[in-house]
Automatic annotation (TrEMBL):
Pfam families: DUF362, Fer4_7. It comes from Acidaminococcus intestini (strain RyC-MR95). Its cofactor is [4Fe-4S] cluster. Residues 182-210, 211-241 form the 4Fe-4S ferredoxin-type domain. The keyword tRNA-binding does not apply. Keywords: 4Fe-4S, Iron, Iron-sulfur, Metal-binding. One of its GO terms (molecular function) is 4 iron, 4 sulfur cluster binding. The keyword 4Fe-4S applies. Ferredoxins are iron-sulfur proteins that transfer electrons in a wide variety of metabolic reactions. This is 4Fe-4S ferredoxin-type domain-containing protein.
Length: 368
C-alpha cells in the first residue's frame, strides 16, 4: 500500500503505477496480446465520490505498456436509474468522466444492451450459487483487473474488491440472484403492454390481461430477465434476502469471475462515503483518505483495507460521527457498523476465505 502523499513533480496516477509494479502486476501476468477487463463502478449520476478517470488511465497505460489490450467495463444495474441499460449507462459513464480519452481505453458495458448478455459460470465449491450469471464481455477477457473505490455500504458494510467483482460483474439476473430469492412482480400502473418481457421470459410465465403483464409465480424461476427487458421500470423484485446471505452469494460470484485466469486487484480508500456509489448523491466522507492498496488476493486486500479503516479516526460532520454523538448510541467499535447499523461485513470475508477466493491473512508492505 501507499498513501496519497506525493512530492512536487510526482502525480498520484504515476504513484499508482509504481504501486502496481511494486506489487508485481507486470511480472506475474503475461499481458501480451490479451484482452484485459478493468472493472470499476462508474457511479450514479449526481454522485461525485467515484474514482477519478485518471486512475483508470494509469492502469490502462500499464496494461498497454505490457502489450495488453485493456477495456473499461461495468454491468447494468438491477434497480431503475441512470445505468439500467447500456445506452444510459454509457451516457452516465461519459458524464461522470469515463470515456476513451480520459481513461486511455474503450468503455464497454459487460452484460450488453439490456443487461441480458450473460454467461453462466460454474462456482467451484459454491454453497449457494452453482452457476453465476456474469456479463459476457467480462468473461470473454483473458485478464481481469478490479479497480474499486473502497467506501461504506448500506447493505454489505463496505464496498471493496469483492463487491466490485461479485455484485458488479453480475448481469441483471445475476444481481437479482444475489439480492433476492424471491420472484419479480409487475407494477400495473407502469406497464405499457409492449410484451417485451414475455419475449425474454424463458419459462412462459408471463401473460397479459386487459393490457397488463402478469407473472405466474408457479412457473417463474426468478431469473430476472424480465426486469432487464422492461423499458418502463414496470417490473421489480420486492423480496430482499438478508444481508448475511447477500454477503455469501456475492463472494461466490466473485470466485466465479476470477477463477482460472490471471487477476489483479486495486482498492483506493478515498472519499469514503457512507453509502454505495449507486446513490445519486454522496454524503460527506466518514473517514480520512488512507491510501492505495494492491494485491493478487482480493480477500487479503479487502481485509487490509477494512483494518486500515477501523484503525482510523472518524471525520467530524459525517454520518458516522453523528451516530457516535447520538445520546444512548451503542458504540460497536466498528466504523462500518456504527455508520450503517444493520450490516454484517465480516461474513463476506469469512465466506470468501472458506470457498478459496483468498485468505484474510496478509503482510502489509508499505511503499513511500
Amino acid at each position: 500500500m501507499t498513501d496519497f502523499r506525493v512530492p512536487v513533480g510526482l502525480s498520484l496516477p504515476e504513484k499508482l503505477k509504481r504501486l502496481c509494479r511494486r506489487a508485481g502486476m507486470e511480472k506475474e501476468i503475461d499481458f501480451g496480446g490479451k484482452y484485459t477487463a478493468i472493472k470499476m463502478h462508474f457511479g450514479e449520476l449526481g454522485n461525485l465520490a467515484s474514482l477519478r478517470p485518471q486512475y483508470v488511465h494509469a492502469l490502462a497505460d500499464l496494461v498497454k505498456e505490457a502489450g495488453g489490450l485493456p477495456f473499461l467495463t461495468d454491468c447494468n444495474t438491477l434497480y431503475p436509474g441512470s445505468r439500467k441499460n447500456a445506452l444510459e449507462h454509457l451516457e452516465c459513464a461519459a458524464l461522470n468522466g469515463y470515456n476513451p480519452i480520459t481513461t486511455g481505453c474503450q468503455v464497454l458495458i459487460g452484460d450488453g444492451l439490456r443487461g441480458t448478455d450473460e454467461v453462466e459460470v460454474p462456482v467451484p465449491g459454491g454453497e449457494y450459487i452453482k452457476k453465476a450469471k456474469i456479463g459476457r464481455a467480462i468473461m470473454d477477457a483473458d485478464v481481469f483487473i478490479s479497480l474499486a473505490h473502497f467506501k461504506g455500504h448500506e447493505s454489505t458494510g463496505f464496498g471493496g474488491a469483492i463487491k466490485n467483482i461479485g455484485m458488479g460483474c453480475g448481469s441483471r439476473a445475476g444481481k437479482m440472484e444475489q439480492h433476492s430469492s424471491g420472484k419479480p412482480v409487475v407494477d400495473e400502473s407502469l406497464c405499457r403492454d409492449c410484451k417485451r418481457c414475455a419475449k425474454e421470459c424463458g419459462s412462459d410465465a408471463i401473460t397479459y390481461e386487459k393490457g397488463k403483464a402478469h407473472i405466474d409465480k408457479t412457473r417463474c424461476t426468478g431469473c430476472g430477465r424480465c426486469i432487464g427487458a422492461c423499458s418502463f421500470d414496470a417490473i421489480e423484485t420486492v423480496e430482499w434476502d438478508a444481508n448475511e446471505l447477500l454477503d455469501r452469494k456475492m463472494a461466490e460470484y466473485a470466485l466465479a469471475v476470477v477463477h482460472g485466469r490471471p487477476a489483479f486487484h486495486v482498492n483506493l480508500i478515498v472519499d469514503v462515503s457512507p453509502n454505495c456509489d449507486c446513490h445519486g448523491e454522496n454524503d460527506a466522507p466518514i473517514l480520512p483518505n488512507l491510501g492505495m492498496f494492491a494485491s493478487f488476493d482480493p480477500v487479503a486486500l479487502d481485509q487490509a483495507c477494512a483494518d486500515a479503516c477501523l484503525a482510523a479516526s472518524p471525520l467530524m460532520n459525517s454520518q458516522l460521527s453523528d451516530h457516535l454523538a447520538e445520546k444512548g448510541w451503542e458504540n460497536h467499535q466498528d466504523h462500518f457498523l456504527d455508520s450503517n447499523p444493520r450490516v454484517d461485513w465480516k461474513t463476506t470475508l469469512e465466506h470468501a476465505e472458506k470457498i478459496g477466493l483468498g485468505t484474510r491473512d496478509y503482510e502489509l508492505v508499505v511503499m513511500k
